[in-house]
Specification:
alpha/beta, globular, about 20% strand, 22 helices, six-stranded parallel beta sheet, binds adenosine-5'-diphosphate, binds zinc ion, about 30% helix, seven-stranded parallel beta sheet, about 750 residues
């Protein structure tokens, strides 16, 4: 952010775009704050002037207030927040590109029947009638110049029709070639659009509740996969558009964008906008401008950063799969959660907020409880067509071991897999993502070694042998408090020697699997094989086309896939999920496993879920089997209340990263000492520093400090800038005030 002078005395306000020079080059800048006087630190300096006003009120003041709040809540600067919110390359573009008046194009639109008086076509000339008919055939709307060129109908004919209220000519800035969103009720103009489904009585009730909700109200739509939530979103969006308001549909993963976009475009036409990391820079800027320039309502489909789009007149925000941790940004700062931002946005803009999930997160569920809940709970308990959810079968891997089977795939799973091709069925197999260090567990009794202070699983660390190469020494370490201990030879609970680190890398597991599954056609679905915008889609298309029997993959596998031939969903090593040293490991594991279970049996044939584990008594596994997610939430809540964990306390994570392990560790320890007095005085605790669960990423060592304090209390921390100022060069810091994961 820079300070400029306003010598011409233009009435500038925050949200205006202005032209100016920076280091001799012309740019467009966003006015963040008009200042009454020069800041003292700039006294006596020459201040460059603003050269012209580019666009007044380019962004809504509500929007800026929202960003200021996000910056405060995330303990960071407005500048960093703007950097996250604005599309890359939008500001700071060379102003020359804008210097000439933007090229305008004219869109011709037939007025929908409702708006046109019945006798309006009386007395039209044959030419005018022909123009109307041709426009009708073009789908009700067209760009003027190609339309004229193709039909020979000139502009004057259309203007005459406009005077009679039969068509509308709209001047649009260049770059808005995409057709306008077609409103419901104009299906007659564009018969190719899909009609809304006739809702089931339950869906109808839910939609009525959304309609009846007060502006700014949040609603949780809790419905199993396949319950018809998306259909409700689409009809709620249609409502908003019909009322002249915009709608924003968010989905957690870029891989889910194509199918949601397709459903929206089938229903609302090609004008549906998209905004996510798969868009090119130009596309993102176009969507951004389209939101700013649009006088008419828009429908946008996007991932978490789309929550910042300056959408006008927002009437509806939907967060599908609201429990998904991809809505949280871990880095760079601001470490915001799109759900929190969406709540704020809904309040400020009077939009309704619909949070959809089959497995809502504990906080959202909690916000629906009590006598005056802040969120309204709506349920869709049944799948469309009443298809049953598949039963869950456990394979106790301890028995496999007892009987001498040491392979990754148990005999029951192997049998099921081997039988697939003969019946033309398919399976998905989940291998929990690598990245978290492994923990020490007993294959005979399921015991996992925990930290004596923190009640989380200790993780296995291996030091690289000096000089590189060769296996180093191994020990156990806590990622919360840095407690360390030796690795024992035998299980402390049962004395077994089958006491080994658990959690091999995905890559190795995949290779081993492919070897064990000889004779089956296997496709791999993970970060490596799904690169690029269409990567997910391509693999899924291959699998859907029956080019493989088994799809093996990481977490991504569980999301959004709807394939009728999949009758088996299996989890190879559920334990890898259960024992992560994380604040929400239990909740997130169960969400993932239930979601995975939802992949099986979506077609006519019933499905089954098969889970391999050493811990069949674990609460997550128990509730996976009985399918009682809400009972799990209640137990989990009681457990967290008694342990004083989130949301009965606040946590804040300080993440440090630097090129050298020892340098970063020293910086983390020094930071801990620096903040400790203030933190402790405020009734908070400092835990750590400890190495991050993923201790080294892209050549940088990562350490972290965990702070714990009372709920709803403010962070007892100096500003981000001050905290950073005390760090050695090369060591970076991120402050995550409400971390989802460690
Ligand atoms: P969810 O989003 O909860 O997983 P969807 O909205 O995708 O559920 O619905 C699941 C399937 O049922 C989709 O194929 C959808 O087209 C269909 N469907 C949804 N609502 C209805 C309805 N009212 N009548 C008939 N089919 C429906
Ligand atoms: Zn044991
Ligand atoms: Zn510990």
């Amino acid at each position: 952010m820079f300070t400029y002078a306003n010598p011409e005395g233009w009435p500038l306000a925050s949200g205006d775009l202005v032209r100016l020079r920076l280091q001799g080059r012309r740019h467009v800048g966003l006015v963040v704050e008009p200042l009454a006087e020069l800041p003292p630190e700039l006294a006596g300096r020459r201040i460059l002037p603003i050269e012209a006003v580019h666009q007044s009120a380019a962004v809504d003041p509500h929007w800026q207030a929202l960003l200021a709040q996000v910056a405060r809540d995330c303990h960071t600067s407005l500048f960093r927040t703007l950097k996250t919110a604005l599309p890359p390359g939008w500001l700071g573009q060379r102003a020359e590109r804008h210097a000439s008046a933007p090229r305008r194009r004219i869109r011709v639109e037939a007025r929908s029947d409702a708006a046109v008086p019945a006798d309006a076509t009386a007395g039209l000339t044959p030419r005018q009638l022909q123009a109307l008919e041709l426009l009708e055939r073009a789908g009700g709307a067209a760009w003027l110049s190609p339309f004229s060129a193709a039909t020979g109908i000139g502009r004057s004919v259309l203007e005459a029709l406009e005077r009679r209220g039969l068509v509308r000519l709209r001047r649009m800035a260049d770059g808005l070639e995409e057709g306008a969103v077609l409103l419901p009720g104009s299906e007659g103009v564009a018969p190719q659009l899909e009609r809304p489904q006739v809702l089931t009585p339950q869906q109808d009730e839910v939609l009525a509740a959304i309609r009846a909700a007060a502006p700014g109200q949040a609603l949780l739509l809790w419905g199993v996969t396949g319950a018809g939530k998306t259909e409700v979103y689409l009809q709620a969006a249609a409502d908003a558009l019909a009322a002249g308001r915009s709608a924003l549909l968010l989905t957690p993963e870029i891989g889910l964008i194509p199918q949601l976009l397709e459903r929206c475009r089938r229903r609302f036409g090609s004008g549906v906008l998209e905004y996510h990391s798969g868009c090119s820079e130009g596309q993102r800027i176009r969507t951004w401008r389209r939101c700013l320039a649009s006088g008419s309502p828009v429908l946008v489909v996007g991932t978490r950063s789309a929550v910042f789009l300056p959408i006008p007149q927002l009437g509806l925000i939907v967060l599908d799969e609201e429990h998904d941790s991809s809505y949280k940004q871990d880095s760079p700062m601001p470490c915001y959660h799109a759900r929190d931002v969406a709540r704020q946005r809904a309040l400020r803009s009077g939009a309704r907020l619909v949070l959809g999930s089959a497995t809502p997160c504990l906080e959202t569920w909690l916000s629906c409880q009590g006598s005056q809940p802040s969120t309204t709970l709506l349920r869709l308990p049944q799948r469309i067509g009443s298809r049953p959810l598949p039963p869950v079968r456990l394979v106790d891997m301890r028995h496999e071991l007892e009987e001498g089977h040491r392979r990754l795939i148990s005999r029951p799973l192997m049998e099921r897999l081997a039988a697939l091709p003969a019946c033309g069925e398919q399976a998905v197999v989940l291998v929990p993502r690598r990245g978290y260090s492994s923990f020490l567990s007993c294959r005979s009794c399921g015991e996992v070694v925990q930290c004596p202070h923190c009640d989380v699983a200790l993780t296995v660390h291996r030091s690289r042998a000096a000089g590189g190469g060769g296996a180093g020494r191994q020990w156990l370490r806590c990622h919360w408090c840095d407690h360390r201990q030796e690795i024992g030879e035998r299980c402390g609970a049962c004395g077994s020697t089958a006491f080994k680190p658990f959690g091999a890398g995905t890559q190795r597991v995949m290779e081993q699997l492919e070897a064990e599954l000889e004779g089956l056609r296997v496709l791999r679905f993970d970060r490596d094989t799904t690169r690029g915008r269409e990567g997910h889609r391509r693999l899924l298309d291959q699998f859907a086309a029956g080019e493989a029997d088994v799809l093996v993959g990481t977490q991504m596998l569980a999301k959004g896939m709807d394939l009728p031939d999949v009758t088996l969903a299996a989890v190879l090593a559920a334990d890898g999920l259960l024992h992560r040293p994380d604040l929400r490991a239990g909740e997130q594991s169960l969400q993932l496993l239930l979601q995975l279970a939802g992949r099986a049996g979506r077609g006519d044939r019933p499905g089954e879920v098969l889970v391999q584990t050493y811990c069949p008594e674990h609460p997550v596994i128990r509730h996976l089997v009985d399918g009682r997610y809400e009972a799990f939430l209640e137990e989990e809540l009681a457990l967290r209340r008694s342990a004083g964990l989130v949301p009965f306390s606040r946590a804040c994570l300080l993440r440090l990263a630097g090129p050298s392990a020892s340098g970063t560790a020293t910086a983390a320890a020094a930071l801990a000492e620096r903040i400790r007095p203030g933190v402790v005085a405020a009734g908070w605790l400092v835990i750590g520093p400890a190495p991050a669960p993923v201790a080294r990423v892209a050549g940088r060592s990562r350490w972290q400090l965990l702070l714990h304090g009372p709920t709803a209390s403010v962070l007892p921390l100096a500003s981000e800038a001050e905290l950073r100022a005390g760090l050695p060069q090369g060591v970076s810091l991120a402050i995550d005030p409400d971390p989802l994961e460690l």
